[in-house]
Every structure is written in C-alpha cells, then in structure tokens.
Write a structure and sequence with these properties.
252 residues, alpha/beta, Rossmann fold, six-stranded mixed sheet, four-stranded antiparallel sheet, 10 strands, 23% strand, globular, binds adenosine-5'-triphosphate
Length: 252
C-alpha cells in the first residue's frame, strides 16, 4: 500500500530515558516530515544528545518508541536502522583518519549496500560502493578531494565529508548533530545551502547551537528544556513563544 503523502519519515512517541535519578528525556514525541528541516534546540544538558542517541539506536529508551517510515524500529540496533535509511553525522567525528575521503564514503555506503550487493563478485561490489561514494562526494563538492586522507582535510571539509558519508547510505531521514560547529561564517553558509538542497531528498533533524543557522534553515523548531519538549512550531511561532523566550532565550 502506498504511504500517505505526509507520513512522517521519522517519528518518536513518548521517549523517556533516565540516568539514575536524572530524567534526560521525558516523554518526548516529535516527527520529521518529508521535505523539511526540523531543528531541535535547547540549552546545554537539555537532553538533545540523549534523544538523538535513542533515535539512532545506541541508547535504549526506558519507554516510548521510534518509527522510521511508519515501521517500529525501537528494537533494532544502530546498523539495522542505518540499513533502513537512517543517515547521521555527529559532533564526534566517526571518520577513519588515514583513509581517503572516497574510502570513508565507501565504508558508509557499505552499511546499506552490504546485503543487496553480496551476490555480486567483489569487483562489481566494490564498483557499486565506489559509485555511491563518488555521487555523495559530488553532492557536497568534495570530488576534487576524493583521494585525500581524511586527516589531511580541513575542518570544514571533514564536516562536509561526514555529511557525504550520511548521504552515501541513501538515507530516508538524516540526523545531523551540530554540523555547523567550528565552521566559521563562510563554511556554515555553504553547509546551510547544501542542507536546503538535501532536505527534499531526505528530511533533516538538525541539532544546532548556531541560532542564526537554525532560524534561517528550519521549517519547524522543537525546543527541549530539561528533557521535555516545551514548544514546537514554525520559526515565527518559536520566536514569539513567551515560554521559550523565558526558559531558553533567557529573556524576561
Ligand atoms: N551516560 C550518561 N550518564 C549519566 N548522565 C548522563 C548521560 N548522558 C547524559 N547524561 C545527562 O543527561 C542530561 C542530558 O544530557 P545531553 O547530553 O543529552 O544534553 P544535550 O542537550 O545534548 O547537551 P549539550 O547541548 O551540552 O550537548 C545531562 O544532565 C547529562 O549530564
């Protein structure tokens, strides 16, 4: 049966996670709709990384569920969620420093193509991965740097490579945790343009501290404070929300 046009690419319902006496995420529900950038903002310690960990699959929630394209993936591990099309890039680099940009993207592509290409001979399998990797590198403008070891790329290029690795997976949804960090104005403007182009292919759940970038790029914003979503809406709605201004933006 065809999915309804507006079925969320990703949805979480009632996610809860406590570390000892501290509830890091408290009954969090939100969704990611086709074509959108949904920004998740909140002060330090609000629970953003814990929420991302539960969505990606390396933190098991105490309660609640995660759905990808309408399928309940709560019991699946990180690799299985990636195979289903959950692409991600994180604050802490997951690149293999000595390997070339292309090889890093090929490893990422393998996460999806490993099973579907297994019946092919190794040479053809390698070619398939390489094509997926090169297409992803081209999307982020890194084709000329394909053979350069990740360790020799600039900080901005490494962030772009991380996005390329997420794309090589052929994602249905993207989780990006602070992709703008350390990029500077020019780098973050370039990455912002890229994210705006990418969202039509795979909607993006964006955790970002750079409020200028968030207000420029987001179609919707959810605000997490002390583990709870205190507001969710358009940029205008969040800007005008008195509770958000008080709890997060630090205004009276
Ligand atoms: N593994 C853990 N064990 C114990 N406490 C944890 C653990 N991970 C996170 N916490 C606590 O849970 C709360 C939420 O942390 P989290 O890292 O999810 O917040 P965040 O919104 O991502 O913060 P930041 O913006 O600083 O990255 C914090 O109080 C943190 O100290």
């Amino acid at each position: 049966m065809a999915e309804p046009a507006h079925a969320p690419a990703l949805a979480v319902h009632g996610l809860r996670k406590a570390f000892g006496g501290l509830t890091a995420t408290d009954d969090v529900s939100l969704d990611l709709r086709p074509g959108e950038i949904h920004a998740l903002i909140g002060p330090n310690g609000a629970g953003k990384s814990t929420l991302i960990g539960q969505i990606a699959g390396w933190i098991a929630p105490d309660a609640g569920r995660v759905e990808l394209g309408g399928e309940d993936v709560t019991a699946l591990d990180v690799a299985a969620r990636a195979r289903l099309g959950l692409g991600r890039s994180f604050q802490v680099s997951s690149l293999a420093a000595p390997l070339s940009a292309r090889r890093n993207a090929m490893i990422a592509a393998q996460a999806r193509q490993g099973s579907s290409f297994r019946f092919l001979r190794p040479v053809a399998w390698d070619r398939g991965l390489r094509e997926a990797a090169d297409a992803a590198l081209a999307r982020v403008g890194l084709s000329p740097r394909a053979q350069v070891p990740a360790a020799e790329l600039s900080h901005g290029e490494r962030r772009l490579l991380e996005v390329a690795c997420a794309l090589a997976l052929g994602p249905k949804a993207l989780l990006l945790d602070e992709p703008m960090a350390g990029l500077g104005m020019e780098g973050s403007a370039r990455l912002g343009d890229l994210l705006e182009a990418l969202k039509a292919e795979a909607p993006i759940l964006l955790v970002e501290h750079d409020m200028d970038a968030v207000f420029r790029l987001a179609d919707r914003i959810s605000v997490l404070v002390a583990g709870r979503v205190i507001a969710s809406g358009s940029v205008e709605e969040i800007r005008g929300d008195a509770e958000v201004r008080r709890a997060y933006l630090g205004e009276d």
